[in-house]
Amino acid sequence: MTRFALLLAIGFIAVSAAYAQGEKVHMKSFGIGSFEFPIPGNYEIKQGPQATELMDKSAGRTITVGTVLRPSGNDPAVAEAIEQIAGLTERSWQRFAQTEGGRVVVPFRRSDIGPALSVLSMATEFTTASGAEYYINVAATDGSEIAVVTIEGSGSAKVAHEFLLPLAEAVRFAPGDRKR
Question: Where is the signal peptide (predicted)?
Answer without folding.
Answer: 1-20
